[in-house]
Amino acid sequence: MRNQMLGTIGGIGVLLLTACSGGESDPVPSAGSAHVEPSGQGSDGYASDGHESDGNESDGHDSGQNSDGWSYTGDTGPEAWAELDASYAACAGDAQSPVDLSAGAAAGATAALELAYTASSATVTDDGHTLKAEVGEGGSTATLDGVAHDLVQMHFHAPSEHTVDGEPAAAEMHFVHAADDGGLLVVGVLATEGVEDVAWAPYLSAADLPAGRSVEVPVDWAGIAPDVSAYRQYPGSLTTPPCSETVTWVVADAPLELSAEQIAALDAAFDDNARPTQPLGDREVVLHE
Ligand SMILES: [Zn+2]
Fold this sequence. Notes:
Layout: H1 2-6, H2 46-49, H3 81-84, E1 105-107, E2 113-116, E3 120-126, E4 131-135, E5 141-144, E6 147-157, E7 163-164, E8 167-168, E9 171-178, E10 184-193, H4 201-204, E11 214-219, H5 221-224, E12 231-236, E13 247-252, E14 256-258, H6 260-269, E15 285-288
Parallel strand pairs: 1-15, 10-13, 10-14
Antiparallel strand pairs: 2-5, 3-4, 3-11, 4-6, 5-6, 6-9, 7-8, 9-10, 12-13, 12-15
The site of zinc ion (ZN) has 4 residues, from strand 6.
């Protein structure tokens, strides 16, 4: 269920634990001993230095074209997603994400949202569309209206997908949670340029991964958890194919501050990996303060 909802890693079975940084200083302390399943290793040259391209991929980070057939530009871009594959039909639905958070906003009853995050290892993968950090051991949860959701993965978009008064932020982080019944809760936070946030350093250390590769890093989930003391909530969808309309969205009012260098690292990994905003329709964005 989760895998169907959240998608899979780029269609490539090869994971490799090198940060592809030339080895001058390994930013990934646990890489040497961490677990990996290199299903294609040894027969395709990946093990040698991790730089070879693959027949299924084009040329890496910014090409936008992935083996799952969709991208952020051109003939396979957002306007075409619903037509690319029968399983992507929901992308033309009327409860899609992202949206502009200013439109239709109204104060609502306060719903308690609690993030209980703990540090854990995470497997960070360049899946051809973003850097996806999948949670290892740890048991981080988000509880909304009494319903617990497990933190599954976190990734980014740059610029942001949700907008405020039509304006995107520099980037947006998505913390994806799943409940036992398969319902998804995604907590988003907009990132603006400011002071460096060192808690993001381990995740950002993977920003130069080649497409299809993974690295295991320690993540202080509590240290990077969004401030959800005030947030906006609405019903929506995955912002990437298959665009399933199974997501309760929460976007924190308080932005995340990252340094110009940290934002540049995100942009260097994936530029313009953001879906345009979708019509709100008859949905309401509810403010919780
Ligand atoms: Zn996302």
